[in-house]
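Example 3.2
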Amino acid sequence: MPHPDAGTRSGRRRRGRLTAVLVALALAVGVWLVHDGAPGSGPPAPGRAAAPGPATPAGPAAAPSSGRVAPAGRTTPPGKPPPAPLPPAVPTSVRIPSIKVNAPLLGLGLDGAGHLDTPPVNKPDQAGWYRDGPSPGSAGNAIMAGHADTRTGPAVFYRLGLLRPGDTVEVARQDHRTAVFSIDAVRTYPRATLPDAAVYGPTDRPELRIITCGGKYDRKAGYSDNVVVFAHLTATR
């Protein structure tokens, strides 16, 4: 369901500001580990199986980045209607069974420079969600982020690139509901060419993006890429 003010001038300004904030957020995600990451081969990269086909009309309206195809269209199993969006509620934890993630969630705001705050480096198993955007399970595009690694080794989203379409993400919420998302695609984008419309664009149904660092690591510049998981709500309980 679109935001109540989606058709108003103030609504368009609000979405524009949010998009600008999230673009800054994306740039910040890519440099989180400039001082904290450990050099090496880096986190596992998404394989070809994680990037099915080009976008369909149901998918995000975004051009491919650096030759990579845009996310695949979202589908619902035959005979099963999509679940109704949940009301807004603070998420408390995220579970991704296929890569053995079970992490508490911290609400993330913006720092003085307008960049997204990060989960504490001394708590590498903690993830965060952008608290000024939609909450996971409610209508819209929820944003989740976390470290790939720190000086102490792999962190919460180190294995994010190993996810495949059809894998599930479960988000527990303060209202005692759980939003279950199915993964549509996993993409790696150079930080400088992240496709904003695909990653942060508004949606009229519950979707989820999970972002971490990836690619090559440089002590001065940090990681070269962002790994992005695209998912949509397929069940609630």
